[in-house]
């Protein structure tokens, strides 16, 4: 059997296994979406709602993410195309028409998207049965609004009685088993010890167990042995790296600002390290919240306290345009992220008008915005003042040298920029005419003002400019950029510093903005909390963020603990008890086990907000320890497994895949913390755009074979191997990662240089540990990559394969790294 045919067999087995899982549990994505709708979105929408950019937080790469909507709420109403905002914009019935600035889609494609929306069932999108009614503007908050389930303080319920009492290990099992028994269902059998060990290792540390750890546990899978494993993993430094990465998804963490120039943030990594350390320390959740929102106010004389407030600075920013419009966008990012991450509320939907579904009037949005209104960005050096002044002076000298060269680039791009701005201006003029928004101006007056504003403020993307430049212009710009880069190499090394926010001494006045337009100010507003939760009480004008943090962490806040424990549950089971973890409002999901959610919330508070305490409860329960074996009868009653009659198999996240490859090869560098690392990226990716986005000299080696959480997060250039496996969106808070299954993933594992090199190192490790015997090599390779020994048939196939290759062991190890079993956790 040739290598090509052997690899085909292994990959075919992998995909057959994946297909078997998919065929057992119906996928969220419908065939109609994957086969017909996804290609339309990829061709026409990916530029604004794809891998690199998700404008308004809307990601159209998968059906799940499309249904989740964006920061302004749902874009699709399942079963009702006429009420779906997305389709209405595609049809140019609502402004702005999509694709933005382009021609309307062909009617045949619009019909396909309409048919897909019409075929969706209400259950497909995580929302209440039948959807939520739209609230008219100015609707007063009623007592009925206040009685909504998530606005009620959790009351600790009594665990229910069950018939099969022998199955229970803790209270979690009582709540789950009671629901199963009510539906005439039974839990699955316990997972095989090897499967359970691999599951809990990946869940708590994001890394696989060693073959020796697997063998030891399989020999003695006792309750005491399992609990020792759990304590060992919770005490591991790798725990913080794993759960810190989950939090960084929510905190929309990145090491650069994004947009056109995507300037680096040389000190952002300190926030990443702060998060990892906080999880390893098991910092009480209330303290964790308070530090991220107001550490500068809590500890005003501690420069290191600023690090935690990086939470408020993590969002994308237009760093080369400092004006009122960009400031309003930054404030919106703070309000939207804070409310969704800590409270599970989509307060950001009320920026332009009263919330359409939840009792959150527009004024509440601006009252929350007023809390952050005095903010100013702050970078504070961790060196003596004299050293800081010398650093600034030298950089100022270099800036003067660079300035005329940047002017040359601006001159080269000017004709293209002028053309693009003219097109955008004309689009907005037509849009204003169609929506009667000329604001009393003539068409020419509006065009002139818009042109001036766009010329000053609009940031064009490289993908817009570059295709319109001639080869000569591109070459000229490249030569000028080389001169700039050469001068920049003479800059002094960045000083150790921290990045955060603080408040201005004079806060200024905040106003309600009509239709969210920064140019159209309404009444003055003062800082306060949402009326539905706090009766709209105003707060003192100083120490605003600290008061916000104190209110969020109050024991009687009905949302904070619920949202937190739901997130913990989600990362263990794949989906939360509430499947919309950042939306506990009217359009969000209803809890599958409301009593269990409240019990966990009150238990979380009682245990001092300890995440590790909740992990212990969850992973030691029998609910968690079930096998993932499929049961057709159970699936007929509960095809989405909301009642938890089995464990949910899932694919490893992008970072865990790369980290597992490094563990298998024996090359994982355990060094923690510090500035981001730059693994090698293909030069054709690095050199895209108006300036290099990644160090051209980046190479593979021990220095970059660290855990993927330490990779420099460049918003405009994400590492391809990480990006293809659905790495987190960096423009908005991401409570749930999309999970796609696309051909580039298989191609990346087959052809990526990093994977090929690590397969070679894995082969060297196998040869060293197993010796020259082919059968022993096969056994060891299986143990290292899959955590199990091979079957007799697998040994037969593998030995035959090894006997016919030029690079037999490397090719064999490469094939194992491509297996479905390597990528999935049962």
**Biggest sheet character:** 2 strands, antiparallel
* Subunit organisation of the chains: single chain
Q: Alpha-carbon distance between the termini?
A: 31 Å
Could you list the spans in which at least 5 consecutive residues all have pLDDT below 50? 1-9, 11-29, 123-130
Cα Rg: 28 Å
Principal-axes shape call: globular
**H/I helix tally:** 36
What's the pLDDT, averaged over the residues?
88
Strand content: under 5%
Q: Order of strands across the biggest sheet? A: 1-2
Helical/strand content category:
mainly alpha
Number of E-type strands = 6
Helix content: 40-55%
What are the SSEs and their pairings?
Blueprint lengths: L2 H22 L6 H14 L1 H4 L13 H6 L16 H6 L16 H13 L23 H4 L24 H12 L10 H13 L5 H9 L3 H13 L1 H14 L18 H12 L4 H14 L11 H4 L10 H20 L18 H11 L2 E7 L3 H50 L8 H15 L4 H4 L5 H18 L8 E7 L6 E4 L7 E5 L5 H4 L9 H9 L7 H14 L20 H13 L4 H9 L12 H6 L12 E2 L2 H12 L17 H4 L33 H4 L19 H9 L1 H18 L3 H13 L5 H11 L5 H10 L2 H4 E2 L1
Antiparallel strand pairs: 1-2, 3-4, 5-6
Brief digest:
This protein has 826 residues and is mainly alpha-helical.
Question: How would you explain this protein's 3D organization?
Answer:
With 826 residues, the chain is mainly α. A two-stranded antiparallel ribbon has the order 1-2. A two-stranded antiparallel sheet has the order 3-4. The model is unreliable at 1-9, 11-29 and 123-130 (pLDDT under 50).
What attributes does this structure have?
826 residues, two-stranded antiparallel ribbon, 36 helices, 6 strands, mainly alpha
